[in-house]
Amino acid sequence: MSRILIVEDEKHLAEGLRFNLEADGFDVSVTDKAEEALKLLLVDKEKFDALLLDVMLPGKDGFTAARELRAGGCYIPILMLTARSREDDVLEGFEAGADDYLAKPFELKILQARVNGLLRRSRWAEVGAKSAEPVEVNGKKIDFESQQIITGEKKSMLTLMEANLLQFLVRHEGQAVSRKQILESVWGVRQDTDTRAIDNFIVRLRRYLEDDPQEPQYLQTVRGVGYRLVQKLRKETSSETH
Known about the structure:
The protein is an alpha/beta fold.
């Protein structure tokens, strides 16, 4: 049975989510404070399979909590819930380490699909990571089983979505892949996901892989298409990439 932690200060919404997710067979815990969630996950080290995290909370907000979880080495899949659906807010959520983002008000069946999608991708990632050999890009070792990028003595942890996206790019090494392909293969087909969210994840991966993220050599943009990963630096004869 998968365990879900909900951090939501609107009591009626939190209890509604608990009721429906428990009806779906999940073991659900609820708190209305980010501080309590941080204690459960970082101090008590309780094992949960997914976190539903509201942005607007008393005390620490959801963005801050997500950053502290990632900084503390907790890479639980995070679905952020918020009434703030502006593009900047969505991007801030992904920048903080969220794996998915759902704006209020939402239909319950949409939330259930998102939760199941996160858990499914997490299981796929575990299976895929065990069968995936580590790869090297720009002298940096990508270990999918531990979800780490290793550079000498430095180890950088990857979130679920970062690892899934990077594994997809590695599987298509040398090929230009479209944002649509990424949406379908990494996120699952969802018309309401802005492709700019993908761009934000690419920016984060470049920070791990590139010597100069502003002038990417390995994780390249293919204009009018999407992106391409090359494991070894190649000279480009065309001006279509940068």
